[in-house]
Amino acid sequence: MDIKLNDFEGPLDLLLHLVSKYEVDIYDVPLVEVIEQYLAYLKTLQSMRLEIAGDYMVMASQLMLIKSRKLLPKLVEEKPVEESPEYELLNQLEEYSRFKLLSQEMGQQHDQRARHFSKPKQELVYDDSILVQDKTVVDLYLAFAKIMARKQEEFKYNHATIEA
Amino acid sequence: MRPYLAEIEALLFVAGEEGLSLRQMAELLDLPPSALIQQLEALQVKHREDVQSSLAVLETGQRYRLATKEGHADLLRQYSRSPINQSLSRASLEVLSIIAYKQPITRIEVDHIRGVNSSGAISKLLAFDLIEEAGKKEVVGRPNLYRTTAYFLDYMGINHLEELVDISDLTVKEESVNLFDKEELGDREEQHEN
């Protein structure tokens, strides 16, 4: 295990990584095995006294529930498969994997656009232009708030590429 | 014969990154839109064929902008850093893609798809004007709905949302998820150096 938690965008991303190693369809993965790996991984991190985001813990408890249910013998088939927590988890995993892929595609699409540069709009001023008084105190407030929000983001990342 | 190409170029130059819509230019130049499109195409050809010109007319978000050609990107990157030329973090991109394809959508719904809290990414995307609030969802708590902005179209270099990658064209490739290919590790180390 040579992975760090900040390589992942949350528990679904980590699960997706564990699942992808089996190279089968998401719905065919040996779920109990994956769950054990996930829990083992979290345990390793904890023993190294690393801060683990709460989201990973919530997922761990969901996984434990799924695992315990899978291990217990079924008395009666109470619910259809579609409603079981494991099926829901697999659905979530599949949807997340699609968006993960889409966001990568979108990143590439933007990189194309980012190769073109423009200059800011030039504000032209003439003596005979008349002021249209269509702005209020609220507009002024929002305009300044927007500038501040942006600046804060920029300072956070120190004018470098925005890498979280 | 009026020098339409020069006039269009002058307008686009002053408008800068804000750009102009077809209708605005048609009114200013007193030209029917179809004739204007012809002139714009002529201007694009003129720029394209002149290798000693750095400019190109870009049509994104249904507005026309004067911008530099792709080839100068590396030179200009050393000099200019405007928001449109910066790339977003993985987290922000994920959130943006979910909002783009599922708009209007609430923060909770985005969180559910990603499995993590997305407040940070959403406030960043709001600050950069890539997304905006689109009313409230009529459920308990009346949470905000979010959608993408006109600037988002420009950011992606497209005119309509339909031009985004088609969800159904994507098959989830197992290897694309593997973070630990040697190549990828190399890429990531480079990123850390930057």
Could you list some keywords that capture this structure?
heterodimer; A: 164 residues; mainly alpha; 5 helices; 57% helix; 0% strand; B: 194 residues; alpha+beta; Arc Repressor Mutant, subunit A; three-stranded antiparallel beta sheet; two-stranded antiparallel ribbon; 9 helices; 5 strands; elongated; disordered C terminus
Q: Can I get a quick summary?
A:
The complex is a heterodimer of chains A (164) and B (194). In chain A, 57% of the residues lie in helices and 0% in strands. Chain A is mostly helical and 164 residues long.
Verbal overview:
With 164 residues, chain A is mostly helical. Chain A contains 5 helices and no strands. Chain A has helices at 11-20, 31-47, 54-71, 85-113, 137-156. In chain A, helix 1 (11-20) packs across helix 2, helix 1 (11-20) packs across helix 4 (85-113) and helix 2 (31-47) packs across helix 3 (54-71). The longest helix of chain A is centred in the middle third of the chain and has 29 residues, at 85-113. Chain A is elongated and about 85 Å long. The two termini of chain A are 23 Å apart. Mean pLDDT of chain B is 85; it is low at 172-194. In chain B, the strands form 2 sheets. A 3-stranded antiparallel sheet of chain B has the order 3-5-4. In chain B, strands 1-2 form a two-stranded antiparallel ribbon. By secondary structure, chain B is an alpha+beta fold. Chains A and B meet through helix 1, helix 4 and helix 5 of A and helix 1, strand 1, strand 2, helix 5 and helix 6 of B. Chain B: InterPro entries: ScpB_csome_segregation, WH-like_DNA-bd_sf, WH_DNA-bd_sf. Chain B: It comes from Streptococcus cuniculipharyngis. Chain B: It is found in: Cytoplasm.
